[in-house]
Amino acid sequence: MAVVRVRQHVNPLSEKYQIPIALPDWNQAFAQPQRPLHIDIGSAKGIFAMEMARLQPEWNFLGLEIRKPLVEQAQRRKEELGLTNLHLMFCNANLSLRPLMESWGAASPLQQVSIQFPDPWFKKRHQKRRVLQPALMNELAHFLPVGGRVVVQSDVEELALDMVERLGEHPQFSRTAQNWLPESPFPAQTDRERVTLDQGLPVYRAIFTRC
Q1: Active site annotation includes 119
Q2: Computed from CA positions of residues 34, 37, 41, 42, in that sequence, does the dihedral angle turn out positive or negative?
Q3: What is the secondary structure of the chain as a DSSP string?
Q4: Gyration radius from the chain CA atoms
Q5: pLDDT value at position 123?
Q6: pLDDT for position 22
Q7: Max intra-chain CA distance, the chain
Q8: Any domain includes 80
Q9: I want to staple 160 with a disulfide (CB 3.0 to 4.6 A). Which of 41, 75, 153, 154 is the partner?
């Protein structure tokens, strides 16, 4: 079998990531589509989303990832595990979140969103490529119900501060604690989180609620 090399970073602003996606039939994507929905933006190999789906069968999980080979790999693994409360999609979240949510109609079950260890894009001229942009925050505020949560995590303090500042400036989000959370609010970890903690390095975490 040929080994497919996957780029660690891709530019979400490049033309090939601006193509609209085909919207799924949610009744086929999930066994019970009206269960509470958690969207994991930047789901990578889907390790976190798969473990969450296994541990919390009363929820549905939707993983969005911009690197197509990772989605295809994760989808095969999901089918092997027989998880009917997990769906994984290749898409650019900044472009696709609104049409995905609108496709649910008025009964969108979205309750929680996680953005974990996204690409930091350190150079200032590249920071417009970061996933948490003003348009995405507005869409999260629009589609999350009052009390819905956005959970952000990173091992890069500069990036974590940027996400916290952006969300903190939005009038419809309120941070649940002023300091970094000492532990993850989730019973599952991403692969990056596991490696970071195994090395004894810090993870910067915060939760915002839709107010």
Answers
A1: yes
A2: negative
A3: -PPPP--S---TTSGGG-SPPPPP-HHHH-SSTTS-EEEEET-TTSHHHHHHHHH-TTSEEEEEES-HHHHHHHHHHHHHHT-SSEEEEES-HHHHHHHHHHTTGGG--EEEEEEES-----SGGGGGGSS--HHHHHHHHHHSPTT-EEEEEES-HHHHHHHHHHHHHSTTEEES-SSPPSS-SSSS--HHHHHHHHTT---EEEEEEE-
A4: 16
A5: 45
A6: 80
A7: 51
A8: yes
A9: 154
- Residues in the chain predicted with pLDDT less than 70, given as ranges, are 1-20, 120-131
Catalytic residue among 25, 40, 119, 162: 119
Q: What is the CATH number of the domain that holds 58?
A: 3.40.50.150
Q: Which domain holds residue 83?
A: 30-210
Output the pLDDT for position 10: 62
Is residue 24 domain-resident? no
Q: Are 44 and 195 in contact (CB under 8 A)?
A: no
Query: What are phi and psi for residue 130, nearest 5 degrees?
Result: -60, 150
In a domain, 176, yes or no: yes
Q: How many domains does the chain have?
A: 1
Residue 47 lies in a domain: yes
Cα separation, 114 vs 38, in Å, equals 8
Token code pair at residue 62: 């939707």
The tokens describing 164, both together, are 């916290």
